[in-house]
Each structure stands twice: as C-alpha cells, then as structure tokens.
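subagent[fold] <- orchestrator: predict structure for attached chain, return tokens only, no commentary.
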Amino acid sequence: MKAVTDADFDTEVLKSDKPVLVDFWAEWCAPCRMVAPVLEEISAEHGDKLEIVKMDIDKNPGVPQRYGIVSIPALFVFKDGKVARQITGAKPKSILLRELADFI
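subagent[fold] -> orchestrator:
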C-alpha cells in the first residue's frame, strides 16, 4: 500500500478518479498493525476498484486534524473528494468487505 502525506493528500486522495480508502494509523498502535495485513489482502483483491493508502498520523497531523480523527485505526473512504464511509477500529476482513461493498 502506498503512503500518503499532508502534502500529497489532496492530489492522491481527493482528486482520485476512483474511491480511495485511507488507513489513518500510527507506529505505536497495535490494532493498526492488526488491520494492516487485512487491508493488504483487500487491496490485492480489489485494487482495480478501490485504492487503499495509509497515512501516519504522527508524521502528518494536518489531514487527520482536518477530518477530526481522534481514534485509530480510522478507515475513511473518499469518493469524488468527499468522505463516503468511516470505519473506526480494527475489524475482521469479512466485516470490512461488507462495509466496503458499495465500493468494490
């Protein structure tokens, strides 16, 4: 999965022509590390329809602050430049796939 930063977020996410799931995470967050391999699998299986990127909130505080991220992992799906879905916390793959069904 590609990492995005405060600097390239608008270009990589908001201006994307397909939906983008942003995984807001941090190195110290155990649930974030648990959900990462699940997101890698979903990316490998559905990357043609849904792009998945990650943003380290410690290194990039601007975007998380702009979207009111207070708890991680926070998974935000952006479509046409707007937040289309929010998922908070580490979830099993089956639940994530159900939550993302509209986009994949």
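orchestrator: received. Logging for downstream: Residues 6 and 60 are 5 Å apart (CA to CA). DSSP finds four helices and five strands in the chain.
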